[in-house]
Amino acid sequence: MNVQMLTIHTLMLPLKQPFVTHSTTIHEKPVVILELTDGDGLSGYGELVALPDPFYTEETYFTAKTMIAEVLWPLLHQAFPISHPKELQRVFRHVKRNKMAIAAIESAFWDLYAKQSGQPLYQLLGGTKQNVQAGIAIGQKQRQEDLFHAIQEAIEQGYKRVKLKISKDNDLQLIKAVRERFPSVPLMADANSAYTLEDLQQLKQLDEFNLSMIEQPFAYDDFLDHAVLQAELKTPVCLDESIASMNDLKTAIALQSCRIVNIKIGRVGGLQTAIEMVAFCQEKNIGVWCGGMIESGIGRAHNIAFATLPGVDLPGDLVGSSHYWERDIIAPEITVHNGLVAVSSHFGLGYDLQETVFAQLVKQTETLTV
Fold this sequence. Notes:
Helix content is about 35%, strand content about 25%. By secondary structure, it is α/β, with parallel strands linked by helices. The chain folds into two domains: about 5-120 and about 350-370, Enolase-like, domain 1; about 125-340, TIM Barrel, CATH 3.20.20.120. Pfam families: MR_MLE_C (PF13378), MR_MLE_N (PF02746). Its EC number is 4.2.1.113.
């Protein structure tokens, strides 16, 4: 692939409005974009999706940036030349965890490889869809009417499902109120590990609200307790933070800890592992959707390409650029029409960097050479 240089761009993107879960509130998102450049001047882009705090996984954007510069890039340097992005699994096979750091580099390799091949990324991955279904995640609101307004907007924009953040203090009251106001909207609840098995009876009461799934009710390593819960619920359990590797996925399915899996490219260590997970889920009849991490357009474009795969059949967290950002860093910006995102047929990710906007938002740049 004749890689010559890796440039790490750190940006700070203000959110239109704070995104609130039971454990954190995000007002602005540090966005780290990796630019991989070959000898002909072509660039491939990947996004580091780690958050400022280690509340979702152990990684933060700062620790992951350090890992990329101090460990992963030197390993790549020793392994050059690289001829295909799949080879990165071998290069990084001895690195423990650090999935988001690895995924950011691997994503940039995939984009560059697709551009060098003159093909759209989604086709190289094995994707077949021309449009992908978009769902929306709505953070917690202080006023119920604000939440109702956000849901009504999502319905009017055609989103295929609405995800609400819940906690032990608000779940039944919140879901009941939303169901009464919106009796037919496809609705799921995301718990972000807010519960334990002691809350079993409380969670069972959610069965009456016809939810499409309850996402990650227990801690990331509670495979056994999730299995107990799923056996007691009619509503499918979806695992998110629990699934960071193929072994995690095989464990969850063997124990019947879930019926649905949310696959996030960053959380599982890259597109190649994500593709392998989808294939395994198809064999085991497990539902799959593509989750999001409040990405910029670069990360979202990778998600769209992944969501075109056969087997990624449930609506994903694929909101348009304008949902989170006043200005995205790609052109054209991602848009949702009637609940669908059109897949770009241009080679690579299918989107260009908005150079002027990008330059205005960059706070720090570090260049690593071969």
